[in-house]
C-alpha cells in the first residue's frame, strides 16, 4: 500500500526523500582504484557501479533481481489524429507482451530481467487535453498509486517503460508545460507520423498548452492535465523505488517526461535514476539536457516498451562483473604507474 | 595458414575482397518490416542484425560462437617516456588475462564470448620509430600473418582488441601518417599521462612523422613504420575475417587505427567491421569520423583489451533476440498503421 490518497500525500513523500549511501559509493570507488586498469579507464562502467551501490545502499552491489515494469494507458487525444496507429493497438500490444511476442520480451530474456505489464483502465481513455484535463485529480492520484504499488519491495534494479498509442503527444505537452516551448520544440514523429501528421500533432499540443495556460501550472498539475495514466504510474513507481532503495532505469522520451515533474519539484529527486537510452524521438535529447542527464545508450531506438531500459541492463551487468571479478594490482603482481 | 609471406601477398588479398550477401540482408529487412513494432523503431539494433546477416551470409544470423582475440606487443618508443606505465606491464597484463583477472575476462563471461590472448614477441620490442622503422618488412609481415592465422575458420563474430604499453603513441602516429595532422591532432593521455607527458608524446609523434616523411608513405608502410606487432596482427585478423565470412567488432582507438590502412587502400575493406565503442582517448572520435564509422557505444572507456568490443556483443545479442523471437503483426493480431 502506497498510502498515496491525494496530491498532498504525494507532495509530502516528494519533500522527504531518502539520500544515497555515500560511504558505499566511496568504498566502491576505492576498490576501483586498486583494480588492474588505469585509473578511471572503465569510464561510465565505474560510475554506474558506484551509482548502483549508492542507491542500493550496498558496498557490494547486486543485480540478482532486475524488474521491468511496463505501464499501458490510452489517450483521448488520439481522436485528434496525432498517431500513425489506431488506439486499438494499445490493448493488442499488451496481449502481445503477455504472450511473449514483443521486443521487450526478447530483450528481457537476453539480459536476464523479469517483465511485468500493467494495463491501466485501457477501456477508459484519458480525456482529450485540448478539451479538458486529461485526468481528474482522483484519476491521477489513482494512477500514481498504481505505479507506486507495483514496485516490488525487494529488487536490485527497476526498469520503467510504457505503451500507449498517442503518448508521445502527452509527453511532449507535459515537457512543454514543465520546461517552456511548444509543439515545435517537443513534438516528434512518434510511431511514424508523416509531415502532415507532425504538423497536426504540434498544433494539438499548442492548443492544449493555450487552453490550460500551461506556463502557470505546477509540475504535478501538468502531469494530470497533459499526461496519461501510464505516465502518472511511472512517476509513482520512480518515487516508490527511491523510498525502497532501488535504482531506476528510465526508458526513453515518454518515461523521462513522466518522471520529470519529480525533478522540477525537488532537484535531487531523480538522482537514483538513469536515463537508459537517448530516443530518436525528437524531444528526448533536449529533455535530457534540461534535466542534466546523459543517457547510457544512443542507438536510434524509438520503440518504448522499456526496450532501451532493459537493453542497458547488459551494460550494468558487465560493469558489475568487472567490479566484482577483476584482480587488484597487488593480487595480479602488475606494476603501478611509473 | 595465411599464405601471407610478403607485402605483395597482402596487397593481393586486399585487392580481392569478398562482398557481402545482399539477399540475406534484404530478407532480414523484410522480416523486420513485419515484426510488431513501428517501422525502423529498433534503430541500430535492426541495422546491426542486417549487417550480421550480410557478412555471415545468412538470412538467419547466429551468435553461437563469439570469439575475442587480444593481441599484445611491446614498443621501443616507450623509452621516450610516452606512457604513464612501464613496459613491464604488458607481459604482466598478459599473465593477468591468462589467470582471468582483467576487465576483458569479466566482460567475456558476462556476454558469453570466448577469449584468446596472443602475445607477440614481447621480449623483443619494436624499434623506436623516432630512430628507424618500428618493424622490418619481415617482422611486419610475420605479425600480420600471426593475426591472420589466429582467426578461427568458423566463428559468428570476431572481437579484436590489444594490449601494449605505448601503443596509443604508435596508433596516433599511424593515424597521422594516414590522415594528416600531427601529435596535436591525434595524441591523447593514453593510460593517464599528465600535461608534461602529453607534450612529450606529441613531440615524439611529430619527430617520427618528420623522420619518415610520413605524408609520402603508403598505408601498409605506415603501419610497418609506426605501428606495432599487435596493430599489424589486428590488420591481418580483420582481413582474414572478411575472407572467412566473419563480421568484426573493432575495440577502440588502437584497434581502429590498426585496421585503418585497409580502408585507405580499399574503401570497402572495413564494411564487415563495426567500431564497437568510441574511446575517451582523444583521437578516436576524429578517426571514426574520417572513416565514416559511427561507434555502437560511447561510455567514456579507454582501456583497450577488447573491452568495448566484448561489451557491445550484448547489444548484438539483444538485437538478434528481437529479430528471431518477436511476433509479426499477423501472428499477434496487432493492427497495422491507420
Number of helices of chain A: 15
Name the pair of protein chains with the most residues at their interface, and give those residue counts. A-B, 64 and 64 residues
What overall geometry of chain A do the principal axes of the alpha carbons give?
A: globular
How far is it from the N-terminal to the C-terminal residue of chain A, by CA?
58 Å
Structure keywords:
homodimer; 338 residues; alpha/beta; five-stranded parallel beta sheet; 15 helices; 5 strands; 51% helix; globular
Structure overview:
- The mean pLDDT of chain A is 97.
- Chain A is of the alpha/beta class and 338 residues long.
- Chain A is 51% helix and 8% strand.
- The longest helix of chain A has 19 residues, at 307-325.
- Chain A has 15 helices and five strands.
- In chain A, α7 (167-179) runs antiparallel to α10 and α7 (167-179) runs parallel beside α12.
- Chain A has helices spanning 7-15, 22-34, 44-56, 88-99, 103-111, 137-150, 167-179, 183-186, 195-211, 219-226, 229-244, 253-265, 284-291, 307-325, 329-332; strands spanning 66-72, 114-119, 157-163, 248-250, 273-275.
- A five-stranded parallel beta sheet of chain A has the order 2-1-3-4-5, sandwiched between helices.
- The termini of chain A are far apart.
- The interface between A and B is large, with 64 and 64 residues.
